[in-house]
Request: fold
Amino acid sequence: MKKKSILLAIVTILALTLVTVGCGGGGGEDTTSTDSNDEAAIKIGFLGATTGGHAYYGINTLAGMKMAADELNEAGGVIGKQIEIVEADHGSKLSEGATVAQKLIQRDKVNAIVGDPTTGITKIAAPIAEDNQVVQISAGAVGDYVVNTEDGKLREFVYRNTLLNAVAVPPVVKYLKDELGWNKVAVVTSMNNDYSVGLTKLFKEALNDAGVEIVADESIQDGDQNFSAQVTSIKPNNPDGIVFTGYYTEGGLFMKEVRKQGLDIDMVGGDGLLAETLWEMGGEAVNGSMVYCGFAADPTMAEGKTKAFIENYSTANDGALPDMFVAQGYDAVMMLADAMKAAESDDPVVFKEEIKKFEDWQGVSGTITIRDDHEPLKSPVYLLEVAEGDNGQQFKVKAVIPVK
Reply:
């Protein structure tokens, strides 16, 4: 009996001790390691492709994001917390864009999303981010209906930091006419590509305003490999150049067919052509092809943080220079960090208000002002040209065109 009484007393004391530990000072809050880790980090989700046809954009955007996060973390983080980049890969598939966006928000509990670099998937993810009140900054989408819906309603949580096609196209067309003597052109559109369809519309408006005649208007599809019929149709019209609004894979193959049929004309397009894949697919046929974009790394002209950014990236990547996607991915993370610092909060509902206030914000890709419509105002436009360099083909700066 005595042993049983002692045992009962010990059990009772242990039970009381556990109750005291469970209630004392804890307020009943869950203090598991998972919650603790969540509180210790600011999670920024990467929405993009690291595989598939648009992997170049995604891989480079992610590289810029990681570079920014590393620098911020080395400097002590943001509002006392470390930045964690949560990676995802939709495989360049439109059908997976919504799934990945949902996972980043619902499963990974990100504070913000950077992506997608393309317009199509950005448009799919934007309403998801808006409905869940998570800030999304696209570091590449340049088409319509990203920060606003098709009926004109402004999205409060969606922004972008890239040079808009609507801003870039008119000065590029003016340069083509005034400096290169393009008075008549062929226009080629990829009809299953939202980016291409939207860009063609802007080019046609600018060409018309500048008095440049469209002598051929051809359609292709993303994924096509044979363009003999389209080039055959273009050839008798003798254009001064080709406005190609699609992506680099089809662009390279298209110019290969252009040269095969004996046309001595060049192609111009937007940043959808900005990838080494352009000459991997087109070879020497794309020499002279031009791409406009909002950033070009020129170590001889860069200053301040842009110069440091180029040097740091080059040192870490065997002398390679960062492209627009690296720079804008980097800037997107830095914009989020500055907004959180200004708001003293990592709550998207709170820090999104600081993004709206950015005026002449200095990023490595240029000076950015976020207008009332959430769209970025950036200048200048860089016009790049494919040319032979010391290590083979590369993009070289052909012109720096101011935006008025």
Observations:
- Residues 166-293+382-401 form a domain with the Rossmann fold fold (CATH 3.40.50.2300).
- The chain has a mean pLDDT of 89.
